[in-house]
Amino acid sequence: MALDLDNTLHAGVLGEDGIDGVQLTPGHAALQRYIKSLQKRGIFIALVSRNERPDVEALFAQRPDYPLRWDDFSAIEVSWGDKAAAITRITQTLRIAPDAVLFVDDNPGELASVTRQHPQTHTVYAPPEANQTLQAIHFYPGLWRWKVESDDTKRIADLQAGAEREALAKSITDPAEYFRSLQVTLLYRHDPVEQLTRLADLCHKTNQFNLALRRLNQSDLAQRLGGSNACVTSVQLTDRLSDSGVIAVIVAERRGAQLVVEELCVSCRAMGRNLEDSIILPALRGMPIFVGCQEVIFRVEHGPRNQPALNWLAQLLELKAPPDPGHHLIPAQRLIDFIPAAGVTLTQA
């Protein structure tokens, strides 16, 4: 959720009314409290404001009556620049797509400008009565969920740990030493019924590292859980900085001497850490139905944003270009011979 500041989170204009002059009405206080509660559901909160950054920092430092604090924002864009460009930078920082953003602003012109450049971005108009903004957000499609999973709540802490990981990567050039210093652990679970909701979320929401784009739902996954010729495997990633939770789901079926990978999704939380092979290949060879397989078949579809998954498979298949839609084969021995990244601990639940 990307939020404007003036006349959205409070009444008034900071640059004109000053820190003590902007008003936190009861409605704006309730709105801020509600927005803060969304963090517990794993929803990122971002600030997009046309102001001087030192003035906005001072506002949150000097107004203890504000429920929202400066550190609550996972991304902050305070400048006199274009808000659509600010939304672009926020999506890059949070590693999400523009269609995963809900932009809230009191200026219809700003809302129109953002949607012109990001047609898929969602918007909510913030009227002077803040309670109406709260209701509009509360009932906005896609925000409400039946159940909040533990992995949802880990998303924000994991992003905060990402900056420290990047700094560590710059100071340690040896990959094995980098992984050892982070104490990276991958935990594989086969047919984890208790994770059904999270795995369906991964299938539905993953866009970049989604090889087959099947979008399997809970019913689809439940039919395969525990089946004699199918396996659903989850991968959990942890290090000393944070628990990233379940970051991958792989669904495969046994067809004769072949293991056919029907769905392969890796969360953006795990991307950029050079762990893709270690996440995927040991998960496949650890499946009970892998025993005795001669070949592994990957199902491939092309989508608007799944280039990272296609690039990974192209490298695995030693192709110069992304693989075409269809089925692509590698010998099972490739998985048997694979050596995971040095310094990474692999555990089977």
TrEMBL record:
Coiled coil: none
Protein name: HAD-IIIC family phosphatase
